[in-house]
């Protein structure tokens, strides 16, 4: 296929440093856009846009052919645009972003295994905590980790853990023959009930869709024989707060490390704040760094110009 003329890239973003990173790449003309004057972007063919700004801007860009969203999760974007738009939408991701997620997950596994939370509390009370219960922990090569999802984020986590000898399972509703990353997992399950009894840790990386919403519930989590730690870096809609609290109180899961929630920010009235088995972080497991966005965007920009298939194209029918 013949190459296109390199189109200018319009940028609608509030991410500090992004425009500078895009300009420094020197691969295209970068045109910063102003949301207060959308008339300037009516001729845009290609745009880089924050998810929060896209819903209000896309109608002012009738000539759009491709928008790259600076967010990895695009479920809020899909909900704000009622029907499939006239342009191709890609989302942020790539190996660098997946590596940030993997570092968070491994950090939290080590945190739970070595019970660092207990030492922090002990330090606050000037207590020398010398206990066999606290001292005992498992190493990464002794653990079974089940990951909900087998996409880029899941593969980043699996790759990191496998390099440390961890047994890693993946869950997917169906297996796609073209996927080359299945060898990162010791086994991929299509039946969640078969995977859960084997897990010491259960990590969710799935996006929020009609199929994933409420996937984890009482009936499912009762199958967790090993009382795993639940780590959520996907979306909070995977389990309702009410059922998560019930699972913790019934000891179906031993701990929950939560970076995402049904409602964000998490309300002060939430019972989760006061539960000793819960670790809360405010949606910071990975963030869209401007240099990572620029690198990933221009890899796709080259493909776009040459008429090649791009990465992380959003399928409107499935929601990611």
Automatic annotation (TrEMBL):
One Pfam family in the UniProt entry: 2-Hacid_dh_C
InterPro entries, alphabetized? D-isomer_DH_NAD-bd, NAD(P)-bd_dom_sf
Q: Which residues form the D-isomer specific 2-hydroxyacid dehydrogenase NAD-binding domain?
A: 108-285
Keyword set, alphabetical order:
NAD, Oxidoreductase, Pyruvate
Keyword Oxidoreductase, does the record have it? yes
Q: What molecular functions are annotated in GO for this chain?
A: NAD binding; oxidoreductase activity
Kindly provide the name given to this protein in its UniProt entry. Answer: Glyoxylate/hydroxypyruvate reductase A
Give the species: Stegodyphus mimosarum (African social velvet spider)
């Amino acid at each position: 296929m013949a190459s296109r003329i390199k189109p200018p890239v319009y940028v609608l973003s509030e991410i500090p440093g992004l425009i500078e990173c895009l300009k420094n790449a020197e691969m295209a003309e970068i045109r910063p856009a102003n949301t207060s004057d959308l008339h300037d972007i009516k001729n845009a063919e290609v745009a880089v846009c924050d998810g929060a700004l896209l819903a209000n801007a896309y109608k002012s860009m009738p000539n759009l052919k491709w928008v790259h969203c600076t967010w990895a999760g695009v479920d809020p974007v899909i909900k704000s645009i009622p029907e499939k738009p006239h342009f191709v939408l890609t989302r942020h991701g790539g190996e660098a972003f997946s590596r940030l997620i993997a570092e968070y997950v491994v950090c939290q596994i080590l945190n739970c295994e070595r019970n660092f939370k207990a030492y922090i509390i002990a330090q606050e009370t000037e207590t020398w905590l010398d206990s066999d219960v606290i001292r005992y922990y498992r190493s990464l090569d002794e653990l079974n980790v089940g990951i909900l999802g087998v996409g880029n984020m899941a593969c980043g986590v699996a790759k990191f853990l496998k390099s440390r000898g961890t047994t890693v399972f993946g869950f997917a509703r169906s297996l796609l023959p073209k996927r080359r990353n299945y060898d990162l997992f010791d086994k991929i399950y299509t039946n969640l009930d078969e995977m859960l009894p084997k897990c010491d840790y259960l990590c969710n990386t799935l996006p929020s869709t009609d199929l994933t919403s409420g996937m984890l519930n009482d009936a499912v989590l009762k199958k967790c024989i090993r009382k795993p730690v639940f780590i959520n870096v996907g979306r909070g809609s995977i389990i309702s707060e009410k059922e998560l609290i019930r699972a913790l109180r019934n000891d179906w899961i031993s701990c929950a490390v939560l970076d995402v929630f049904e409602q964000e920010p998490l309300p002060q009235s939430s019972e989760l704040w006061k539960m000793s088995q819960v670790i809360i972080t405010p949606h910071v497991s990975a963030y869209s760094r401007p240099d990572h966005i620029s690198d990933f965007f221009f890899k796709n920009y080259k493909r776009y110009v040459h008429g090649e298939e791009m990465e992380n194209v959003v399928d409107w029918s499935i929601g990611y």
